Amino acid sequence: MIRTSPLSLLVIGALVPTFAMAQCEAGELEVSIQVHTDQYGNETMWQLVAAGAACGASPLFVGGNSAVTCASAGNFSSPAGGYANSATITEGPWCLVEGTQYDIICLDSYGDGQAGFTVLIGGTYAASFPATGGAMNRYTFTVQLPEARDIAVVSNQTSLFAEAGLPVAIAVTVKNVGSDAVSSFGIGYSVAGGVETTETFTVNLAPGAEREVLMTAPWIPAAEGAQTVDLRITAVNGDTDQDASNDQVSRDVMVNPAIPDLADAYLQDPPVLTQVADADQDILVPRDLDFHPDRSRNELWVINKDVFNTGGSTVRFTNPGGQDQSFLYQRDPAARHFLSLPTGIAMGDNNGFATCPGVYDANGNQSTTTPFTGPTLWSADPAIYAQNQFGPLGSHLDMLHVTPRSQGIAHERWNRYWVVDGTNRDVVMHDFKGDHGPGQDYHGNAIIHRYTQVSITRDPNNHIVSHCVMDKSSGWLYIVDHGGQRILRLNTRTGTLAGNPTFGPFEQYVQYRNVTGATVEVIVNSGLQEPAGIEVVGTTLYVSDHATGEIILYDMANGFAERGRLAATPGIMGIKAGFDGRLWYVNATNSTLVRVDPASMVVGLPEQAAATRGASTRTRPATWSPS
User: Among 418, 387, 417, 381, which Cα is nearest to 299's?
Assistant: First the structure.
């Protein structure tokens, strides 16, 4: 139940508590709700309803803009009136029944960024719901006083897929749902019921605050196969957590065999080039490729540049190179914006992937006035990616907008990707954090760090790529400087947060900062004409040269000395090692997908049956030159 004064219950747009409350009766608690608007406060309308009630069904309170209705939310309008922008408005208080659940239904007229909410009971923090995106969201809270010490694990960013011998990032997001500020808390994790590894984090978490924590002691799996990682809160402020019900999460991780380094095999005898696909399989100016880390899917994804008016596209090969190979060409309904002349693709460890655009402005203006573009986050779920039921913004999960003319992209962990910025000539870390869901438009929770010490020069014709790759065993990011005809590396585990970048931002983010003092090294500065693609396997660095058509091998354990060159085809761009160690590449000049077979393990000979739907598998010898 709810008790109020005789004033009307449906108060719209109140900027101060509407009701002067008497002391609540036994069995009731005094509740207030703080509304935190974004930069478009006028687009918010919200309702306080009984748990499970529909929008507009006897709301207990209505706040915000009366021009926004349950039926009109998400119609891309921005009516005048309502709340102020970027403000905190306190509504209430009300006397609500203790122990009862209520819902906050929040609507946004445009359908993008929404308001956030904080629930106060007797003036004390009780619950919070950070701003997110979409036309309508429902948040449920219980009218009860919180425990003093209570840290909740609200999400788990531990990888779904891993490789034996490589470190696995153990990360979770925690939230202080207690009434006391938290200065320290402990987390422990164990694998397959083994010995628990614990760590204490010193923090400053106010009630309702969240933060992601990454265990400094990663798990390095030795055994292959499915393994369960259990995590739990071990302490809060040096004492026990008073509510253990929200302390534990687990993750089933598939540990795959390590990818072998076939450098020695490649250099023994000239390898064989096996053409796996071409334009007959919808390969259209391809610039990059990657394998889905779920090896049971056995998928290779190729990203096509295509043309500006349509946006790029992908071709997903199942059982690539095999007799039963099949392929699926897809273009997202909103590819013109979210996949505009793409230069790179990187698969994540959470059934997602990201792409980066080669344009200056994804909205269509290619002048020098509106540099609004950057990497896009996607789902690799076939029921989501490139499907058309999500509205005018397509199936994309997220997009950030401070890296125009991106040249390459590499995955680090979960939703954290690194992008080579062709316009600003540096490298930028993008952590999308939690995505906004298919076809939505909220980007405000992202963290972006710009590494200006890195300096690259893109192809002036905006065609040949400057890719990058993350060595997850060390944290080094290897970067192609196409125009400088060299290879750089950045130690991503070094550097200090500094001031705000001078470029952008063009929308609000949780954090957008420069990083200074990071370690950057030039590791190759001769012998390259038009470097483009890059890959790391074991202790070998592979670089493709678009002009010469070569793949050059460098010994990472011996000062990056050149070991040899494999002759592929001029026009080569992205390169990637398959799960068996064999290299694959795409050629943007002749629109082909090619596998590089060591002479000792050729698969895909001419007598092999053609793959499904006319896919071709052709082979020819490659030449080899030792350094």
Answer: 381
Report DSSP letters for 583-608, one per residue: EEEEETTTTEEEEEE-GGG----TTS
Enter the tokens of residue 108.
Answer: 């946004």
Please answer whether residues 14 and 45 qualify as being in contact, where contact means their C-beta atoms are separated by less than 8 angstroms: no
Strand order through the sheet with 136-142? 61-64, 44-50, 101-108, 136-142
Mean pLDDT of 493-502: 98
* Cβ atoms < 10 Å from Cβ of 493: 10
Looking at 84, 119, 142, the residue that finishes a domain is: 142
Checking if the pLDDT of 294 tops 70, the result is yes
In a domain, 600, yes or no: yes
575 by DSSP, 3-state: which?
strand
Backbone angles phi, psi at 189, to 5 degrees: -140, 150
pTM recorded for the entire structure: 0.88
Residues contacting 132, CB < 8 A, separation 6+ = 113, 114, 116, 434, 436, 442, 445
264 CB-near residues (< 8 Å, 6+ apart): none
Question: Is 87 in the same domain as 52?
Answer: yes
- Sorting pLDDT into bands at 50, 70 and 90, what band is 601? confident
Report how far residue 344's alpha carbon sits from residue 159's, in angstroms, rounded to the nearest whole number.
22
Residue 131 has what pLDDT? Answer: 86
Q: Which amino acid does the sequence have at 316?
A: R
pLDDT for residue 80 is more than 60: yes
| 311-318/592-597 β-pairing | unpaired
Nearest to 482 by CA among 503, 496, 461, 498: 461
Q: For residue range 470-493, list pLDDT tens digits in order.
A: 999 999 999 999 999 999 999 999
CATH of the domain at 241: 2.60.40.10
Look at residue 133 in the predicted model and tell me its pLDDT.
Answer: 79
Per-residue pLDDT for 196 more than 80?
yes
CA 230/CA 249 separation, integer angstroms: 6
Instruction: Give the mean model confidence (pLDDT) for residues 357-362.
Output: 94
Q: Judge whether 64 and 79 are in contact, CB under 8 Å.
A: no
The residue written with tokens 């230069």 in the block is 343
Are 553 and 455 part of one and the same domain? yes
What is the CA 412 to chain-centroid distance, rounded?
9
Domain that holds residue 240: 151-256
Task: Give the pLDDT of residue 256.
Answer: 98
* 341 in Cβ contact with 357 (< 8 Å): yes
Please choose, from the candidates 446, 457, 451, the residue with its C-alpha nearest in 3D space to the C-alpha of residue 476: 451
Would you state the structure tokens that stand for residue 388, as one six-digit string?
Answer: 């058309």
End of a domain among 142, 168, 200? 142
Pair (134, 268) in one structural domain: no
